Amino acid sequence: MFIAQELRKKSIAEYLLYMWQVEDIIRAYGCSLVVLNREYISRFDYDEEQKEELRDWYGNLIRMMNEEGKREYGHLQINEVLLKDVIDLHRLLLQSSKFPFYNAAYYKVLPFIVELRNKGDKEVNEIETCLDALYGVMLLRLQKKEITADTEHAINEISTFIGLLSDYYIKDRNEGLKFEDD
């Protein structure tokens, strides 16, 4: 929760990836707050008030996962709505002539996106495809599995592009981006 709050302010992409990880952590503990508290939350070096906040936060997420039928897979509606906002911003940035650097970054990663979509779900939006790739590689690293040089290169390019989109998202939320000539 505390990490999520900070990530949401500085990088929407990192926030979404973190929230996907939180969803998976909840699933790993059987969507049980009792088990999650005993085996996970209790290990954090927080005072009792912070742990109570954390229990409430996880409890709310577990409730939402149960209500939305996300106990086995999928993302919470709050995360899906946020992802849609990021996707909408991506489209606006591509359509505007005021962001040539963003367009160049997009076309640089487009071959990787096409390759990923050909291997996976072609119906998934290209931004979600990028986030799925970043999340997948993060999981591989956690499992200490080998990542090929080609995959590493693609992930570095995708990461740079998604970082740029994330920066624009934060700037748009804080200051507002101008997409048209005034």
Give structural notes.
The protein has 182 residues and is an all-alpha fold. It contains eight helices and no strands. α7 (126-142) packs across α8 (149-174).
C-alpha Rg, in Å?
A: 18 Å
Mean pLDDT: 93
Question: N- to C-terminal separation?
Answer: 40 Å
* Biggest beta sheet attributes: none
Number of DSSP helical runs? 8
Number of strands: 0
Q: What is the number of independent domains?
A: 2
- The dominant shape is globular
Percent of residues in helical segments? over 70%
Question: Structural class, from secondary structure content?
Answer: mainly alpha
- The quaternary state of the protein chains shown equals single chain
Order of helical and strand elements = HHHHHHHH
In short:
By secondary structure, the chain is mainly alpha-helical. It is 74% helix and 0% strand.
Q: What topology does this entry show?
A:
Layout: H1 2-10, H2 12-28, H3 33-39, H4 48-67, H5 77-95, H6 100-119, H7 126-142, H8 149-174
